[in-house]
Each structure stands twice: as C-alpha cells, then as structure tokens.
Design a protein that fits this description.
- Helices cover 64% and strands 0% of the residues.
- α2 runs antiparallel to α3, α2 crosses α7 and α3 crosses α7.
- It has one domain: Orthogonal Bundle (Hypothetical protein af1432), CATH 1.10.3210.
- By secondary structure, the protein is mostly helical.
- It starts with 20 loop residues before the first helix and ends with a helix.
- The protein is built from 10 helices and no strands.
- The structure holds fe (ii) ion (FE2) (2 copies).
- One fe (ii) ion (FE2) binds next to α5.
Length: 220
C-alpha cells in the first residue's frame, strides 16, 4: 500500500490499477462523454472526475473492483445539469416513486434518473455501476461494497471543502472497515440535512434506523 499517515483517503497517481485495453478505452470514452455532458458546469465535471479517482482508490484499499468504481464515479452526477422541473418530469415519466411529492426530494432524483438513463446509453457496463449511481444520493440499508465506495467517495473527494464531518470520515478510510466508513458518511450527511433545515426524506430515516438496528444488534 502506497499510502500512510493522514492522507490514506486521498487518491494518488502511484496507485493506478492495471487495466486492460478495453477498460482503458471505456474509461476514456466515459470521461469524454462526461466532459461533453457536464460542460455547462465545469465544477461538477471536476467533482465527478475527482469522485472517480477517490472511488477507484478506495476500491483498491477495500478489495472492490476499481474499474466499476471509476466508471460509477465518472458518471454519477450525469444528470446534475438537468433543470429541476425537467428532472422531476423525467423522474415521473420513468415511474420513480419516492412516496412523497417529487418536488420535496428533487436533490435526490439525479442519481435515480441517471441510473436508468445511463443503463440505456451504456449497455456494455456492469449493472452494478448503475446501482451504485442510483444509491449515491439516498444510500440504502443493503449497500454492496461498490455502492459504499461510491457513496463515500462522493462525500469526501479532495475538491470538497473540509468540514468536521468530512474530516472525520476521511480519517477512517483505510483504517476502519468499509461498513463503518459508510455509516459515518451516511449519518454525517443526514445530520447536515437536519442542521441546514432541509427536508429529510422519510426513506433516509428508514435507512438510518435499519443501519442503526443492525449495528446495535451486531454489538450486542
Ligand atoms: Fe450527486
Ligand atoms: Fe457528486
């Protein structure tokens, strides 16, 4: 492992995985497509590429497929350029049901809409990539390691301004089990929603309770 000290969470050039030519071609294609799709929002593009590198790095640390993590990272915010009303319309027409008025949960929709749209655009990609994209905004109580890596990478990538919660999650990467890093990142995100007075989707509270019950059960 090339990382030590306080920066274990941070991706670096030295941990480039050995991809075959097909994988390198796919990454190049996805990055070019993301550059075009996210061109109106250069910061979002930079964030996406940074999430991709961070997820790839975390995948290497935790024995997850780094290629799938990289692809999911590149594409995860694909629909962040879609205007809010248009995104809600698309979610409705795709049959996305959040159990509440979709206007209340608009910030959560881009992952779910993108997962469905991207599966049509990139049928060659492993469906696990689209599940990770779907879950990057909401989390879930039955996250796969790939889902967890993408979720956490989205929250801690180096371009994100440090906050107490983000720093705490970063400090756990590579030191604590992936489930624990995800848990920290998940409740940190939930606390942020509450602290800033935003609407908390009831599904988020359900995931929190499922995770808390499972963790408390495991500790008993
Ligand atoms: Fe996102
Ligand atoms: Fe993101």
């Amino acid at each position: 492992m090339s990382h030590s000290g306080a920066d274990m969470w941070m991706p670096s050039e030295s941990d480039d995985p050995e991809y075959d030519q097909d994988q390198l071609d796919e990454i190049e294609r996805l990055e070019a497509d993301a550059r075009a799709q996210l061109a109106p929002k250069p910061k979002r593009l930079a964030h996406s590429l940074s999430v991709a590198r961070t997820a790839e790095h975390m995948a290497l640390l935790y024995g997850v497929d780094p290629f799938l993590a990289r692809c999911a990272g590149i594409l995860h915010d694909w629909d962040k350029v879609v205007p809010h009303e248009e995104l809600i319309r698309r979610a409705q027409s795709l049959g996305i049901d959040m159990g509440v008025d979709l206007h209340l949960v608009e910030p959560l929709l881009h992952g779910k809409v993108a997962a469905l749209e991207l599966a049509d655009l990139y049928p060659e990609l492993d469906p696990a990539v689209f599940q990770a994209i779907d879950r990057h905004t909401t989390g879930a109580s039955d996250m796969t390691p790939l889902d967890e890596v993408v979720f956490v990478a989205d929250g801690i990538e180096p371009l994100r301004k440090a906050s107490e919660g983000i720093e705490r999650t970063r400090s756990l990467v590579g030191r604590e089990p992936l489930d624990d890093v995800y848990w920290e990142s998940f409740w940190g995100g939930m606390v942020y929603v509450i602290q800033t007075g935003r609407y908390l989707w009831p599904g988020t509270l359900s995931v929190y309770n499922d995770l808390a019950a499972a963790r408390n059960g495991a500790r008993r």
